Inverse folding.
């Protein structure tokens, strides 16, 4: 049995932020949530989150997750003090406790599984992840008797200049036999440069403690400032984009593209430069997305194209074309074989299959049937200053250029709306509606003598 404790009480002073450090997102997901995801595969019996600075915000951000226990560390007196807070919550527990810093967001689940296996097979009292860094400054240094048996961890600031030469660093990822740790945890002392209770001090009193180096040191990069946050994002992007390319997705100029972790992309999708896919977005096979597009929390059906457009919280069907310069948002639902063209904004509107809005339109709070043709410049006037109202357009209806549909309004099927109409009343199927002032022609308006003389 394994329990997990995540240290997330610190302010993260070096972030210079009002947001608790562990809530800063890396690729669409907060650091602490990434840490939780990395342990999910171990099906922990307890998920204990030590919170302190900004704890309401941390709890709120994680409210959608099941099975978390938040433990308050009212004063942040160090990582050892943080783990002391779990003692009352693990009474009678005799399994292993995995302790993770909330600011180490790139850990792979396989790495943790491997560490746990190594811990259990060797009957270690404690196991920690280590790495050899070219620039180990800032990290605690791990001192070993031989290769794997740890004798001591000394924080960078407490090291002598010689000790600082040691490139082996403590990743802040530990596995403890809980009964062994529980015995010595209460006796930590704060006799160090920071006057804090260091979790790392327990290794001196546990035996055996073994360390394993991670295969990919990038995984254990801790985030203490915005520079490291950006570095972590870049590493994550490399990982994600490499995986998608290996899965059959073409990325043209990958360095200019960003893809969040939760995005799903089918094989034979082409992503063009300067395109950003965020949140829970899914792209079906055969799509060409970009260049220059942002798609967030949206689904794009097979064989559709999106160019120079922004799509949020919306759905596009199959074989549809979006853009250039279209904006879909707020639950726009576009059917199959649709065309959404230049400077068209669609909000909270459903478009049936084969419906086109090719130029210069706003369609908001509307339901359009199949094969509707929305003329250039058609606007749904959905807001009266107090409330939003709905517009219905039946199948095969055609709106003329520059028509304004003043909602609430229902237009039947096969209706033709004349260009420039302001439609304020419902229209029955098969009708032609002309709602504009008739053209007046006044002959001879400009008297002959007022014409400019010929040169
Ligand atoms: C810690 C380790 C160091 C290791 C490094 C790896 C100690 C003493 N040092 O140093 O050996 O190389 O991580 O990244 O553990 N936290 C609390 N309560 C506290 C203090 C911290 O919850 O009272 C949390 C922080 O929010 C953070 C984590 O513990 O998520 C680590 O704290 P931090 O201050 O960043 O430790 P480091 O100095 O990086
Ligand atoms: Ca840290």
């Amino acid at each position: 049995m394994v329990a997990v404790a995540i240290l997330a009480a610190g302010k993260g002073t070096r972030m210079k932020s009002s947001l608790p450090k562990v809530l800063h997102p890396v690729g669409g997901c907060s650091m602490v949530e990434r840490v939780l995801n990395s342990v999910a595969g171990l099906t922990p019996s307890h998920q204990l989150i030590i919170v302190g600075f900004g704890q309401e915000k941390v709890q709120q951000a994680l409210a959608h997750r099941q099975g978390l226990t938040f433990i308050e560390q009212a004063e942040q007196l160090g990582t050892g003090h943080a783990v002391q807070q779990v003692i009352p919550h693990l009474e009678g527990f005799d399994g292993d406790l995995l302790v993770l810093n909330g600011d180490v967001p790139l850990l792979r689940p396989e790495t943790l599984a491997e560490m746990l296996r190594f811990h259990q097979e060797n009957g270690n009292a404690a196991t920690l992840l280590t790495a050899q860094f070219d620039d180990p400054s800032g990290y605690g240094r791990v001192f070993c008797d031989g290769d794997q048996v740890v004798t001591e961890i000394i924080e960078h600031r407490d090291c002598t200049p010689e000790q600082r030469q040691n490139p082996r660093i403590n990743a802040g990822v530990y596995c403890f036999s809980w009964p062994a740790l529980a015995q010595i945890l209460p006796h930590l002392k704060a006799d160090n440069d920071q006057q804090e209770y260091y979790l790392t001090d327990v290794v001196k009193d546990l035996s055996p403690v073994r360390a394993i180096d991670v295969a990919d040191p990038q995984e254990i990069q801790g985030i203490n400032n915005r520079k490291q946050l950006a570095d972590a994002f870049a590493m994550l992007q490399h990982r994600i984009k490499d995986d998608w390319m290996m899965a059959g997705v073409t990325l043209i100029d990958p360095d200019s593209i960003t893809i969040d972790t939760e995005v799903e992309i089918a094989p034979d999708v082409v992503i063009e430069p300067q395109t950003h896919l965020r949140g829970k977005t899914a792209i079906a096979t055969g799509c060409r997305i970009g260049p220059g597009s942002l798609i967030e929390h949206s689904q794009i059906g097979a064989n559709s194209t999106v160019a120079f457009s922004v799509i949020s919280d919306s759905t596009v069907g199959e074989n549809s074309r979006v853009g250039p310069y279209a904006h879909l948002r707020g639950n726009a639902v576009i059917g199959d074989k649709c065309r959404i063209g230049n400077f068209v904004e669609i909000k909270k509107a459903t478009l049936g299959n084969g419906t086109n809005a090719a130029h210069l339109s706003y369609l908001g709070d509307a339901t359009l049937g199949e094969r509707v043709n929305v003329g250039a410049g058609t606007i749904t006037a959905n807001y009266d200053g107090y409330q939003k109202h709905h517009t219905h357009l039946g199948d095969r209806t055609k709106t003329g250029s520059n028509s304004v549909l003043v909602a609430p309004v229902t237009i039947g099927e096969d209706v033709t709306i004349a260009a420039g109409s302001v439609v304020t009343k419902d229209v029955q199927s098969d009708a032609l509606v002309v709602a504009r002032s008739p053209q007046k022609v006044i002959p001879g308006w400009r008297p002959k003598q007022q014409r400019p003389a010929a040169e």
